[in-house]
Structures are given as C-alpha cells and as structure tokens.
Amino acid sequence: xxxxxxxxxxxxxxxxxxxxxxxxxxxxxxxxxGSGSRGRIVVADIQQVxxxxxxxxxxxxxxxxxxxxxxxxxxxxxxxxxxxxxxKMEKAWQExxxxxxxxxxxxxxxxxxxxxxxxxINDFIIAATAQALVEHPWVNATWDGEQGVELEDIxxxxxxxxxxxxxxxxxxxxxxxxLQDISxxxxxxxxxxxLQNQLTEPDRDDxxxxxxxxxxxxxxxxxxxxTPPQAAVLCVGTIKGEVVVDDQGDPAVxxxxxxxxxxxxxxxxxxDAAEFLDTIKCYLEAPVMLIQN
Length: 293
Hints:
This protein is an alpha+beta fold. It has helices at about 5-10, 15-25, 45-55, 60-65, 65-70, 80-95, 110-115, 120-135, 180-195, 200-205, 270-285, 290, and strands at about 100-105, 140-145, 150, 155-160, 160, 165, 170, 210-215, 230-245, 250-265. The protein is built from 12 helices and 10 strands. It has a 6-stranded mixed sheet with strand order 1-10-9-8-4-7. A two-stranded antiparallel ribbon has the order 2-3. It has a two-stranded antiparallel sheet with strand order 5-6. Helix 2 (about 15-25) runs parallel beside helix 3, helix 8 (about 120-135) crosses helix 9 and helix 8 crosses helix 11 (about 270-285).
C-alpha cells in the first residue's frame, strides 16, 4: 500500500467520526492529544474527554452510553466502501485456492538510482512487474470457471490506503509505459485518491494484476487476498539492511526487500510463481534494464 508525501501534509489530525462527535458534544479538539496512529484524535479520545468532564456519579451512566456513541470499526472511513470490500474479500477467500511464494531481493542499485532519476522504489517495482508479466503472460490471467485465460493488456492496480477505505487505482497498459511514464501516472492516480477523491471508472476498473506495498509501514513481509477475477497479487515488504555474502564470499550488509506472491492455484502452480518472482528479482537487481526500456 502507498501514500504520497503531499497527502501526509494535508491529512487532518482528527478523524471525521471523532470530529463529528466532538461537535455534537461541544468538545474542542485543538488542545487534545490523540491516541490514534501518529497522534491522530479518534472517537475513543472524545469519549474519554466526555467521561472525565462528568461528575463521578454520572460516569457509570456515560460508560453505558459509550456503545451507542461508538462507530463501526472503520477508522473514520466510509462504511459503504469497507462493507463492499469486506464482501468482495470474503468471497475471494472462500472461492480462490490461495498459495504463497516469497523471494528476497537486493535493492542496492534501485536505492541508488531512484534519487538520480527522481522516481520512487514503488515505481521500479511496478516497472519490473510489468516486464515480468510480459515474459510470463500466464500470470496476467483470469479464471473463467473452466480454465485460466491470459489477458492481452497489463493493467496494474496499486493499493492506496485512505481514511475512506482502500482504493485500487489502475495503471492501464503498463507494458507500453517507460519507468518515467509509470512514475508520472502513478503519482497522478494516487493524488486523485488521496487528495482529490476523483477516481473515474477507468482509473479503478479493468485491473489484471495488483501490487500492494506495506514497506513504508515497516512490514517485512505479508500475504494478501487475491482480488477477483485476477490470478495473483504481489505483496511488497520494507527494505531492511541484512547481512549477505558478497561475490568474494565475504559478509556484507545489503538493503534487502521481500516480495510475496499470492497466487490462484487453479491458474498457477508453484513453479510458475517462482519463475515470475525470479524475473522481477532480476530486473530489480539490475534496474538499468528498466531505465533503458
């Protein structure tokens, strides 16, 4: 999952649900210290202020009312979006036979090149994945009820987390895009989601493959549920310095990232997944090939 720097600078410190409750109760939020992520003020903080402001003999009554004041577990996001996503993921988990394969990637050259080129690590991952999907078209596929069907276009969805829920803006025809094109289009799509909430139907439909990145959250590796009708989803972990053995057989520290492929066993087998991940690894460990494309 990805978040733009611009979004961090404009993101409110108080959740919409907490802000609404504070207004209803006449509680000012400017001086409060939140208990949520990065000090964000959440509903529980407003409820605590209400409890502490009541006389002691009224606190039990206030506590009993707490359930009615609470909102669903949506982190202040859109209940509708989260319900739709929950139903979709539940159906996918029940119907798709998942399996998982993880690989480690040395990101030394990507880390070095990204500053010179003004692109992100996620841009390199998208570009490498697009090239790997060109070479392994059976991964860019769907299950039609009887067999796997390879898809012509490579449309990659990039998971973006917001207070309104999880969105999946889609980069269309990635096989035709350069690294710089991918960087520009990905940034524009994420800005639509995080800053403007202006996704159009083509921006979010027709995805043939999904990438979800939790590296910026410090997650080393994870697996995800496949978004139907796709056959796989690539999960990206954080980059972490680890001891490796260099070409001379000596120990060295390198920035290592783990990629996990969640795959549909009806369409792919373990060998397919391993080969696909190895191709992504080759591109990321020699990113000059992506720069030249």
